[in-house]
Amino acid sequence: MAKAKKSLTLESVQKRLSVRVAELRTSKGTTQVQLADSAGLEVQYLRKIEQGDRAPSLKTLVALASALGTSLAELFNFEDREIVNPRVEVQLLRLRSLLAEVSEDDVKLLNKMAERLAAGPVLAVRQRKKGK
């Protein structure tokens, strides 16, 4: 049986688009400052687009596609997955980009650290212990 497609909402498209812009930018090794400059945008505005806080106009989308060396269709070529928090997704992209430069042993160590963080609020526990 075929899986039913979720209906698109403006909010879901905006979230997916925000992550897609960040994905394309990081895959090209471009900073937000460089992309904003190439697209003729303010850096703060680009950050808000990538965080899902602003819905770019068609004019801005054309400028971003051009600056990224891609098409409008490619900007909207995002996975059919739910984006809960674009800010977290963008941070994960940054981490993925940084991890490409580290050794396999370091990646394993970071993975263990991430598992500990996911297991509970490690930082909050440490802060409470210091306060005793």
Could you describe the 3D structure shown?
This protein is an all-alpha fold and 132 residues long. The chain folds into two domains: 10-100, 434 Repressor (Amino-terminal Domain), CATH 1.10.260.40; 102-132. It is built from eight helices and no strands. α1 packs parallel to α6, α2 (32-39) packs across α3 and α2 crosses α4.
What characteristics describe this protein?
single chain; 434 Repressor (Amino-terminal Domain); globular; 2 domains; 132 residues; mainly alpha; 8 helices
Helix/strand layout:
Elements: H1 10-27, H2 32-39, H3 43-50, H4 58-68, H5 72-75, H6 86-99, H7 104-119, H8 122-131
Helix pairs in contact: 1-6, 2-3, 2-4
